[in-house]
Amino acid sequence: MKYVVGSGNNFTVELASSGSMIVQDNASAKISQIDNDTKEHDYQENIVRGYKVEIEAKTAPYSIVDADHGKVITVSSNTSTQITVPQTITAGFACVVSQIGSGQVVFVGGGTMNIRNRQGYSKLASKYSEGSLKVVATNECLLSGDVGS
User: Fold this and answer.
1) I need a labelling partner for 103 at 20 to 30 A (CA). Which of 2, 26, 68, 76 fits?
2) Phi/psi of residue 36, nearest 5 degrees
3) Whole-model pTM?
């Protein structure tokens, strides 16, 4: 079924029986689409994956990449594991890192990237702890959460 939103607004909202929705302007250019099956929201060609967190499992040292934005990275190891935040990660990046194993997760900055924490900590506290990484400016990353020395 198809519904016109308001008079003279030149937008249409199309609802499918599955619950999916498409918003278009008067030139039939897609503005927004919500897919009820995949739980993705496509807004002007930018996919929003806010419906389900993607989990990236690691068992060895790992260097964060821009594609990890918005993900939960789990680290399961019995030995200390280094997570590197390279200087190439851009401002606005955010992810969560969870320590699943007994080996402590240690964060380091690659190149000129600085890992900042109010207490000066750079490790997760222990098994089943997690920390949030947010790149707030060029070469500046904040680490917060259940962290320790």
Assistant:
1) 68
2) -70, -25
3) 0.69
| Pair 65, 111 in one domain | yes
Q: Compute how many other C-beta atoms are within 10 angstroms of the C-beta atom of residue 97.
A: 27
Dist. CA 48–CA 55, nearest whole Å: 16
How far, in Å, CA of 24 to CA of 34, rounded?
12
Q: What residues contact 115, with CB distance under 8 A and at least 6 apart?
A: 85, 107, 108, 109, 122, 141, 143
Kind of pairing, strands 114-116 and 140-145?
parallel
| 95 and 137 housed in the same domain | yes
Q: Are residues 137 and 92 in the same domain?
A: yes
Q: Give the residue numbers spanning the domain of 41.
A: 2-48
Q: Model confidence over 50-104: pLDDT tens digits?
A: 456 789 999 999 999 999 999 999 999 999 999 999 999 999 999 999 999 999 9
Q: Is 11:26 a contact under the CB 8 Å cutoff? A: yes
pLDDT by residue (tens digit) across 20-53? Answer: 555 556 555 555 555 555 555 555 555 555 456 7
* Total count of domains within the chain: 2
